[in-house]
Amino acid sequence: MEKLKVGILGATGMVGQRFISLLENHPWFEVSCVAASPRSAGKTYEEAVSGRWKMDTLIPEEVKNLIVVDVNDIRQVASSVDFVFSAVDMSKEEIRSIEEAYAKAETPVVSNNSAHRWTPDVPMVVPEINPEHFAVISSQKERLGTKRGFIAVKPNCSIQSYAPVLTAWREFEPYEVVVTTYQAISGAGKTFKDWPEMEGNIIPYIGGEEEKSELEPLRLWGKVLGGRIEKASEPVITSQCIRVPVLNGHTAAVFVKFRTNPTKDQLIDRINNFTGLPQELNLPGAPKQFIRYMDEDDRPQVRIDVDYENGMGISVGRLRKDTIYDWKFVGLSHNTVRGAAGGAILCAETLTAKGYIEKK
Fold first, then answer.
1. Is 314 left (phi over 0), alpha (psi -120 to 50) or beta?
2. 325, 255 in Cβ contact below 8 A?
């Protein structure tokens, strides 16, 4: 298959850099355009990120010498790509406007941003959980007046370490959940070099994060009705989100009440055997095992478990009965791979496999 040409909007930021590193040697996609703010435009990509490349790997050779395009030059970007990933750093209104402009330029947008997560006809998808929500794209195209342009988004990084687990347990009817997330600094686009005051520190507030942690899972579990996504009403989730001195990896401590009475063995079995469309289709970025259960008392640990399945898998441990809730567990996910760029790439692979994204 001839590779699809991909543009990255916001290519110089941390998530944009993660997109570029993950797309190196991708079997289906090749980065052919990098777009960023006007101050980076006209430079080579290597020049534009000089002194602020935050990945552990080197800048891919095939991207180094690409000339950065002004992200506002929609016609130029759209004419050179089959679709774009969006990781722009702008206000919500500006993001909504620019992503819609790209879609109207007949260029599908797969976004890492939160701006369109609650637009009723924009699918917000974790491909193992709710790929059927992509069906709403046909209604969105009618609204936008497009033939091939649309927007699809992935959810917030903070929910990846527990929403898939609760999905695996849906048959047991979880109805009340308490979650505390311990979130890495890369979720704020930072390293310890940028944010030295985070070393040895904890900040008990991340703006907007608790609302996302409580509401976005309900949209994943919602239904497509009348050309829009209607969110589910249960389980009710309450959360606290805390910034901790970790570079990559969001950990969640979760308490769950169920309507039925599952055994520990049943819960572990559903975790270990949970699969979805990406596994059925054997997509390039799909983890072989999406969620794994770890028996050791001191796992999962960020340092040794965050890169499970190349950062696309979820690790779960410490499942035990609770005195107030029914069960409690700890989950871990990679916030910039599964939680950001990798999750968006898997969405694009699913959209490609289902015929929503194709060559122009």
1. beta
2. yes
CATH number belonging to the domain at 4-156+341-353, selected among 3.90.1150.10, 3.40.50.720, 3.30.1330.10, 3.90.79.10: 3.40.50.720
Is 241 catalytic? The answer is no
Whether 250 is a known active-site residue: answer yes
Mean pLDDT of all residues belonging to the chain: 97
Q: Tokens at residue 250, please?
A: 């969001």
Catalytic residue among 33, 116, 133, 157: 157
Q: Give the model confidence (pLDDT) of 298-347 as tens digits.
A: 999 999 999 999 999 999 999 999 999 999 999 999 999 999 999 999 99
- 8 Å CB contact between 135 and 170: no
DSSP character for 180?
E
Q: Which CATH class is domain 158-334?
A: alpha beta
For 79-138, write each residue's pLDDT tens digit. Answer: 999 999 999 999 999 999 999 999 999 999 999 999 999 999 999 999 999 999 999 999
Backbone dihedral region of 53: left (phi > 0), alpha (psi from -120 to 50 degrees) or beta?
beta
Instruction: Return the domain boundaries, the chain.
Output: 4-156+341-353, 158-334
The catalytically annotated residue of 116, 133, 250, 334 is: 250
φ/ψ (deg, to 5) at 133: -70, -20
CA dist 217 and 296 (Å) reads 28
Instruction: For residue 328, list its beta bridge partners.
Output: 255, 320
pTM above 0.85, yes or no: yes
Residue whose token pair is 């609204």: 143
Rounded to a whole number of angstroms, the distance between the first and last alpha carbons of the chain is 14
Give the SS3 label for residue 104. helix
